[in-house]
Design goal:
By secondary structure, the protein is mainly α. It has 9 helices and 5 strands. The strands form 2 sheets. A 3-stranded antiparallel sheet has the order 1-2-5, with no helix packed on it. A two-stranded antiparallel sheet has the order 3-4.
């Protein structure tokens, strides 16, 4: 895939994995999981198809050569079946790091061809098909709703710097106040345990 800054942002719906689908993703081997994150096929969104899912499964089982099915089964939702415009959320946004969105950093989407080939039983290309006939280019824009251009949102490092700068500007407490602050208030209710707020897809599951 190549990148370009000439194409406008295309907003496509983001997929939210169900608890059962998350378990399927968690069961993926580590290497394939990492590859799926890079390719955006952890939460892909299929384009409308005249073929049902059962019909597609029949083709994959009975028509595809063994090497294709072997690789396809290593990924939670398959490997070969996804075009650029069906890919999902980039790995950084899935980790709740929208300040590092892949396509924000690239200043454009990942681009592939708008066509694909139909092959005969001997593996020879016999025709070209248009992958996305609605006129939209078949490119991968990360499906996270975060901004893909303009100023980057604050990341953890920037928030820490700002918090440190704000703390340095606060007036220092006197000795009496510091002594009082060191004595715990035993009548106060215990603090609840810290629970991190969930990010995109619960911050990488």
């Amino acid at each position: 895939m190549t990148e370009t800054a000439d194409l406008p942002v295309i907003r496509r719906p983001q997929r939210t994995l169900t608890p059962k689908e998350r378990e399927t993703v968690r069961d993926t081997a580590s290497l394939n999981f990492q590859a799926g994150l890079i390719m955006g096929i952890i939460d892909p969104v299929p384009n409308p198809s005249p073929m049902s899912e059962d019909e597609g499964a029949w083709v994959r089982e009975r028509v595809w050569p063994a090497f294709m099915t072997e690789i396809d089964r290593k990924y939670p939702w398959g490997f070969w079946r996804w075009t650029n415009c069906e890919r999902g959320t980039c790995w950084n946004c899935l980790a709740n790091r929208c300040d590092l969105c892949v396509h924000r950093q690239q200043r454009g989407p990942s681009v592939g061809g708008d066509t694909d080939s139909v092959h005969n039983a001997h593996g020879l290309g016999v025709a070209k098909i248009i992958v996305r006939p609605d006129g939209a280019p078949c490119v991968w824009w990360c499906r996270c709703p975060c901004a893909k251009d303009g100023p980057a949102p604050d990341g953890p490092a920037r928030r820490r710097r700002e918090a440190k700068r704000a703390a340095a500007m606060q007036p220092k407490a006197g000795p009496a106040q510091e002594a009082g602050a060191t004595r715990p208030d035993r009548s106060a209710a215990p603090r609840p345990p810290h629970r991190p707020s969930p990010g995109g897809q619960d911050a990488l599951f």
